[in-house]
Amino acid sequence: MTSESGDPQKHQVRIAASILAADFSQLGRDIRSLNDGGCDEIHFDVMDGTFVPNITFGAPVLESIRPLTSLPVDIHMMVQEPGRFVDDFARAGADYFTVHVEACTHLHATVQAIKAAGMKVGVALNPGTPVSVMDEILPDIDRVLVMTVNPGFGGQQFITGQLAKIAAIADRLPRGADGVDLAVDGGVKADTAPGCVEAGASLLISGTGIFNHPDGVISGISSLREAIGVTEA
Ligand code: DX5
Ligand code: ZN
Question: In angstroms, what is the span from residue 176 Cα to ligand 2's centroid?
Fold first, then answer.
C-alpha cells in the first residue's frame, strides 16, 4: 500500500463497498467488479422492516455470492434481535457480523454467540446513540461501526455532526494492527471521506459513492482512495 501524503495512518484505511447500491439484476457482475477494482471488503446490509423502515436480503443471497469473491464480507444487521441469525450467516460464509447496540436486549450474549460461531464482531451505533454505550463492550469486539446516516436507505446525506463521535471513539481505541476497526457507514463519498479519516476512521463503507460513480464501480473505488491520499491497494 502506498500513500501520496506519506501519512502512515492512511496506510491502514480500507474501503468496503455496500452492495445495497449494486444492480441486483447483475449482482455477480458487480461483485466481480469489486474484486477487480481493489475493494478491500464487501458490506452486506440486512434490513428487517422493523428496526429500520426497509427490507433487503438475507443469508441465501450471501450463500449465492460467496463463491464469487475471496474478499471478507461484513454482515450489517439492521435487524431487531440479530442474535437469532448468527448461525445462518456463519454457515453462509460471513467473516464479520455487525449488530446494532440499539437492537440487542442482551448485547454481551449476542457478541459471545457471534464469536462462538467463528465470526469477527462489529457493534454499530445510530447517530442518536452516545459513545458511552460502548464502554462495557469495547474489549470484546473487533469493530465499531459509526452510522453517519440514520440506517434504512442508501444515498442519504452524511451527518457531519457524527465526525465528533468518530473522533471520540478513536480516542478510546487501542492503536496498531491488532486494534479495533473504526468503520464509518452512510453518505461516505470522495467529499466526505477525508473528514472521516481525519477523525480516525480505518474502514470507509460506501454504497452509492462506489456503485453510482459516473465512470463505473472501479472508478468509484479509486476516487475514494485518491480522496484520502491512498493510491494503491
Ligand atoms: C444504510 C446502510 C449503508 C448504506 C450506505 O442503512 O447501512 O451501508 O448502504 O450507502 P451510501 O454510501 O449510499 O450512503
Ligand atoms: Zn450498512
Answer: 24
